[in-house]
Every structure is written in C-alpha cells, then in structure tokens.
Design brief:
This protein is mostly beta strands. The protein has no helices and 21 strands. It is 0% helix and 46% strand. It is globular, with a radius of gyration of 18 Å. The chain starts with 22 loop residues before the first strand and ends in an 8-residue tail after the last strand. Keywords: Hydrolase. GO terms for molecular function: ureidoglycine aminohydrolase activity. This is (S)-ureidoglycine aminohydrolase.
C-alpha cells in the first residue's frame, strides 16, 4: 500500500525503438507507460503550472461513460476551480506528493493514497503548496440522478479502508471499495483491486460495465477479449462494455490497479 506508479514524462532518445506495447481495438485499448511522454500532455483550462495525460474520453461506439486524466501539478500550481461542468461528478486519487483540496469551502490535505469523491455541483479546487510535484488521477462522469438519492462528497485515504476479500479466494484477491456497491446514490465506483502472486480472476468476466484500469503496482497477464496481454505498473487498460476480461497475477509481488466502473442504473433506451 502506498507504492503507486506515476508517469514522469521525458522523451525517449532518437535511438529508441519505435515499437511499443500500445494496442487499440474495437473492444479494448492498452496505453503502456512508455508512451506517456512530455509531447502527449494537455493543458487544462483554469490550471497553472500543470500538465495532464488524458488517457480516456468518451468515444462513440466504444467507451462512453467517463474520462480519466493523470494530472501533474508543479510547486505553486493548481486551480481555484477545477470542474466547470455542474452535472459532472469526479474522483481524485493521489499517487505522488501532497495535494491541497478545497471542497465546498473546506480545506483538505491529501497525501499519497488520498481519495476524494466530488459530487456533481460541488465547488472544488486544488493547489500544490509543497516543494515537489504532485500527481493524481482525476476521473470524471456525468452524474445520472435517481429520484430519492443524492451522492455526497467525501474525502478519505486508502490506508483507512479495509479491503474486502473476494469469495472463496483465500485472500489472494481483494478489493478496496470507497463506496458501498448497494448504495444507489452512486452510479459509479473507483476501487483498488489487489492480487497476491498466484491470484486469478478465474473466468472471463463479460458484463455491461465499462472499465478503466490503471496499474498502480506490479505486473500480470490480463485477458482482454481474446488476447492475453502482459501489463505492468504505469499501464492503462480501457475496456468497452461486454469485453471479456480475466487476470493471472504471477508475481513476484502484488499486482494492484485503480478500477473505474459504471453501475446501479437502468439502461436508457429513449
């Protein structure tokens, strides 16, 4: 816990082989850590001394529910107002450094492993007041309101959440859930999944939920549609609905990833 990979940018030398592990298919995309260089970053409106890697965004015919960014803020940088769309909820997860988060007028200090759920309509901003960079994931989704329910903002840290062992796995497969899956106020979850060496997803999961999976630590073989793909810390996998998936964590250490999924809503047909 707390050993999170974050991109550091840079640019490969001219002698570097062009071949990489990037894969784009109709069912899934793999963005390996090696392509997260300086020249593929994006600036963000309202932010200073900040760059971002946008690793997922809605694309017609593929994954459509969310966007995901890796944001890096240099000392003194940030944004007094980060989210400009009032109907968008978000999650911030800190992988490097210390981040000041002002949420609806209250100041929170997020360190590595820090997690914030930012409800749609919340006023929030971020600032790096340290002497080093801060890196965090920012996941955004249009909130689907449900009569009688309303998601509320909160701030916590991974170290304060007890992971739940998946049934009949002898603790080799655990999930850290920051919200209750049965809470219909939430139409998405961003969890942390941890496999011990030898842990597996023992069948190809095939379901309606889209996924974004960012590998925080370790390496594993991951089944994506019909392909077994080797992934490691810093890689990102993006799965459309009904893409079969499974996992084998061969070790030597833990395999951990940050997982996005949409949930708890009926399919809209009109």
């Amino acid at each position: 816990m707390g050993n999170y990979y974050y991109p550091q940018g840079g640019l490969p030398p001219q002698t570097h082989l062009t071949t990489e592990r990037a894969i784009v298919t109709e069912a899934y995309t793999v963005i390996p850590k090696g392509v997260l260089t300086d020249i593929v970053t994006s600036n963000l409106p309202g932010f200073t001394n900040t760059r971002s890697w946008i690793i997922a965004r809605p694309i017609s015919g593929f994954a459509t529910t969310f966007s995901q960014l890796i944001v890096e803020i240099a000392p003194g940088g940030g944004a007094p107002k980060a989210e400009f769309e009032s109907g968008v909820e978000g999650v911030v997860f800190v992988t490097k450094g210390k981040l000041n988060l002002t949420l609806d007028g209250e100041l929170h200090h997020l360190e590595e492993g820090g997690y914030a759920y930012l409800a749609a309509g919340s006023e929030w901003g971020v600032e790096n007041v340290s002497d080093d960079i801060v890196s965090y994931h920012w996941i955004r989704k249009a909130y689907e309101r449900l009569e009688g329910y309303e998601a509320k903002s909160f701030v916590t840290n991974e170290k304060d959440i007890e992971p739940t062992s998946m049934p009949d796995t002898n603790d080799v497969w655990k999930t850290t859930r920051f919200t209750d899956s049965s809470d219909l106020a939430h139409d998405m979850q961003v969890n942390i999944v941890t496999f011990q060496p030898g842990g597996v997803i023992p069948f190809p999961e095939t379901h309606v939920m889209e996924h974004g999976l960012y590998v925080l630590e370790g390496k594993a073989m991951y089944l994506l549609n019909n392909d077994w793909v080797e992934v490691e810390a810093g890689d990102f996998m993006w799965l459309r609905a009904f893409c079969p998936q499974a996992c084998y964590a061969g070790g030597p250490g833990e395999f951990r990833y940050l997982l996005y999924k949409d949930m708890n809503r009926q399919v809209k047909l009109t």
